[in-house]
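Hi R.,

Here's the chain you asked about this morning:
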Amino acid sequence: MTIYSLYIYDRHCACVYYQDWHRTKQPRRAGEGGGILNAVSQAVSPLATDSTAPTPSAFSSPRNTLSSTSGLVVAVGEDPVTPLPNQAEHARSNTLPFDEEAKLVYGVVLSLRNMVKKISGRDEQFTSYRTSSYRLHLYETVSGYKFVMLSDAATDGLRFILRQIYNGPFLEYVVRNPLVPMDSRSQGIDNDYFRASIDRLVRGLSVFN
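And here is the predicted structure, written out as C-alpha cells:
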C-alpha cells in the first residue's frame, strides 16, 4: 500500500497546497499565468526568472517567525529551490502542468460529490472512489476546505488521516498562524513547519511504503 500525493483546496476552489511522496511521474511546473497561487509548493510553482523574481515579503521570508501555541517557533517560508537535472525536467514534459492537474482533480471530486447527492440524497457523503490503479480519498471541512489524498488501489480508506492533518498541522501551522493569508485568493498556505509536520505524520503511517 502506497500514498502518492496530497492536495488541499480552499472554499474558492483553488489549490492552496500540494505535496507528494511516491509518484512515478512528477507533474510539470505550472506555466506563468497558469492560475496556480503562490506558496502552494516549490516543486510545482513556475520557475522565477531574474526579471520576474518576487521581492521578499513578510510571508515568504524565512526570517519571519511566530511563536505557536505549542511553544515551537514557526518559520514561514518555502523550501529553497533546488535545480532539477535536465533529465528530470525532460521526463516531466510528458505529463500535465500542475495547474491543469489540480483543476482535473478538483473537477472529479466536485462531479462525483454532486452525483452522490443527487442519486442518494443530501445526507449521503462522498468520501472516496477507486479505480484499477489508484484510490482517491476526500475529507471536507465545515469551512469548505477539501483535503484530497491519492493512494494505490489496495489502500483502505484514509479519511481519518486527512482529518488528522486538518485537526493537527492545519490548525496549528495555518489557521493559528497570522502570517498565512487564508482565503486570500492570491496566496497558498505552504510553510516549512506545516510541510514538515504533514511529512512526519504521513511517513509514520503503516500504509506508507
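One quick note: The chain is about 30% helix and 15% strand.

Cheers,
M.
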